[in-house]
Amino acid sequence: MIESQKENVEQQKNKITIIDQICFKIQEQAAAVKSNAQKFAEALICVIEEKKQKVCKEVENQAAESIQRLVTQKSGIEHQVQMKNTVIKKAETLLERSTSAEIVLLEKSLDAIFQGVMNDVGERVNCDLEAARRFILVENETLMDKTITEGIGSLETFYSNTSAHQSRAEGKGTSEAIVGLKAGIVLTTRNAEGEQCYEARGCVTVEIINHQGQSSAKEARVQDNKDGSFQISYFPKETGKCDVSVKVNGQQVHGSPFVVTVIPRQYRPVFSFGQQGSNAGMLSKPWGVAVNERNEIAVTDNGNNRVQLFNSDGTYLRSFGRKGDKNGEFNFPCGIGFDKNDNIMVADCNNNRVQCFSEQGEHLNTFSSRGNLDHELKSPHGLSIDSDGNIIVADRFNKLIKIFHPDGQLLHKIGEEGSFTFPFHCVQYENYLIVSDSDKHCLKVFNRDGKFLYKFGKKGEGDGEFNKPRCVSVNKAGHLMVCDLRNHRVQVFELSGNFVAKFGTRGSGIGEFNVPLSTAVLSDGRIVVTDFSNNRIQIFE
Questions:
Q1: Under the phi-then-psi rule, with left for phi > 0, alpha for psi from -120 to 50, and beta for the rest, what region is 325?
Q2: pLDDT tens per residue, range 112-155
Q3: Number of domain units in the chain
C-alpha cells in the first residue's frame, strides 16, 4: 500500500510538472500574441503615416502649381502695365504737341496705339478661378468607424490537435538556395500520433533571417493546401548562411530553424524567340519589355511601330498599333509597363506622348505633347510604373524624370538644372528612385521626394563600369539589373551600388547580345531581355 501511494505521489508530481510546462507555453503564446498585436499596430501606424505624407505632398504640389500659375499671370500683367504706361506717355506727348485741329485727327492714331495693348480680362478670370480654388481633406470616415467598431483585430482561442514537433518540413529550401531564385519547402502538419491533420484555424509562419538577425529573403509566402500540407516559398537576397524558421501555432516544427546555405546566382540562357520581320510574332528592333502577373510578356516592337504580347514560352498572343500620330498609333515606341489593372502604358517617343491601352490593345487615354512645360515631353524614352500606380517617364531632351498620375496630371519631377545629361530610364524600388544617366555612364539614386542621394558607375568595361547604361529593373532578390548597352551585357548590383554579377557578351549566339536595352522579371525569377539588334527576346534563369 505504501509503495502504491508513493507511485501515486510521483504521478501527481509529474502532472504538476506538466501543468507548469503548459503554463509556461501559455505565457509564451500570450507574449507572442501581444508582440504580434504591437507589430501590427506599428505597421498600421506606418501605413497611416505614409498615407498622411502622401496627402501632404499632394496638397503641397497642388498649392505650388496654383501659386506658379498666379506668379506667371502676375508677370504677364506687370508686363502689360509696363506696356500701357509706355503707350500712355506716348499718347500724352502727342496730345501736348498737337493743335486743336490735329487733336481731331489724333483719335484714330490713339485707337491704333491702344489696340495693340492686350486687355487683362483673361488674366482676371484666371485669377478669379485660382482664388476660388479650395483645398479640403475628405476624411475617410469609413476607416475611422471600422477602426473604432472592429479595432485592429480580435483574440480567438481554440484547442489544437496539431503537434509542431511531429510536423515535418522537407525540400531543398531547408538546406540550400540560390540568390534571387525561388526556394521551396513542403510542410506536413501532424497530430501527436504522427497522423497528417488539418486545422482551419491553425497558423503556419516562416521567417528567414541572417546571423545578424536581419531579414535575408523577399516574398516569403505560405500556401495552405487545406489538407494538412503547405507550400512554403521564398527568394533569398544575399549569399551565406541563414536560418529558416518554420512554426506551427507559434512553435518550431521538427528540425526548425533550418540552416540554409545560399550560393551566388549564375545566369544561364534558357531560350530565345523572335526574328527579323514584320509578320505576327516577328520583331524589328525590340526596345522595351514588361511582364504582367500572368507572365505575359509585352514588347515594344520599335521598328514595326507596334506592341506585341507573348506567353512566357515565347508563344505569340496578340499585337496592336501601327505607324502614325493618331490615338492607338506609334512613332518609335520605347518604354512600356503594366499597371495594377494590367493596362499597358507606352512611351510614344517621336509623338512626344504617353498612351494607355487595355491588355487587349484598346486605346484608353493619351496625354502630353511636345514642349518644355511641366506637363509636356520631348522624346520620352524609358517608362515604368511605381508602387502607387503612377507613371514614371524619362523626358530625354527636357533632361528630367517626370511622374504622372494615370490621368496625365503631373505629380512630381526630378532633375534640377544639370542633374542629367541623358536620363534614359527610372524605376522605383522601396523608397528610392534609380535613374540611368546614359551619357554620364552611371546610375543616380534619389529618394521619393527627388532629393539626390548618391551615384555609382563610370565609363569603362570592368565590373561595375558602364558604356551607355540603358534600362533598369529589380529582380526577386532586390538587386538592380542594368542593361550595359555598348558593353553588350547585363550587370547586377545591390542597391548600394556593389557589383554582384554580370551575364552576356557581344554576339548573336545564345546568351550573347547585340545592344541589350531592357529587362523584366517573370514570377519564377527568370529574366527577360530585349536583344535589340539581334531582333529577339532572350530568357535567362
A1: alpha
A2: 666 655 555 555 556 776 676 777 788 888 888 888 887 877 77
A3: 3
